[in-house]
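Board notes, transcribed. Complex of a protein with 2-acetamido-2-deoxy-beta-D-glucopyranose.
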Amino acid sequence: MMMMMLVVLLIYTCWPYTPGNGEVVSSFEDFCPQFFFRGTPPSMGLDPSRPARICQRYKNQYRYATLYDKDNRIPVYSAYIYNPGTAKRPDTWRIEPQLLDSTFPQEMETEWAFLKEYNSQEEALQDSQAIARDYKNLTGLNRGHLNPNSHQPDRDAKSSTFTFTNIVPQAIKLNGGAWNNYEQKTMLQQTEGCNETFAVVGAVPGNNYIAEGRVNKPSYLWSAACCVIDNNHMKSWAIIAQNDENVVYSLTLRQLEERLAKLYNLNYISLFDRDCPRE
Ligand SMILES: *[C@@H]1O[C@H](CO)[C@@H](O)[C@H](O)[C@H]1NC(C)=O
Ligand SMILES: *[C@@H]1O[C@H](CO)[C@@H](O)[C@H](O)[C@H]1NC(C)=O
């Protein structure tokens, strides 16, 4: 009896789950399910070997969700609700303190403010994620948002997309060309009549790196959307692009899931709850 109580006590005190913890979380379902259709995150083995689940927090609010790959120092995907607004484009970049450790602040903040407060943590910061320096002096590549600021409603929500955990090195031509056209025009057309649209946008790691091997250059970028028209009507669509071509290919959600399973070398990938139609 005594032994059992001890074991129970041990489990309680060692359990890594801390209710009310922000930012880097143990599960999206428990902390920020609102960014996923039916509260269901993508499933079946999209996790990299050192994953971090981030409920992206800015000005004391969760804004969207990102699965981050700490080895490649790029996101696997960002998931958000499409809600475009016209506020001015922000340009202040932030980092994610809790990628160092859950004892650090819950909110994203500028590298400068973070290092001012924790000046001994520069190396730990660089180890945990990509920083501004990694994206300087690139040739043919720039900062590609997964959750683009243009799909967010207001100034604060837009600001929350300017974090190094939400971007990948993306071909400048693609970022400003076909990808931008999809983000601005195709999304607007496709979402006509949608009451709520959930988006998941991701990057497939490639064989090349920038910043002396620190940050992976993805081979593909992809984007999928699930649109809720009303309780009984939904539709989906998807695209994929090679990161060295200025072309996006339209696919059904099912085709994208199958394609990604091959690219990630997995048996099965589901990007949205099964209630979202695949064709
Ligand atoms: C920028 O890139 C060029 C060519 O890749 C290299 O020669 C140069 O040293 C780099 N400059 C800095 C400041 O890293
Ligand atoms: C539209 O979505 C909102 C939540 O964003 C919900 O409250 C409302 O009931 C929905 N309307 C319809 C017609 O489904």
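The pocket of 2-acetamido-2-deoxy-beta-D-glucopyranose (ligand 2) is lined by residues 195-196, 230 (CB under 6 Å). DSSP finds eight helices and twelve strands in the chain.
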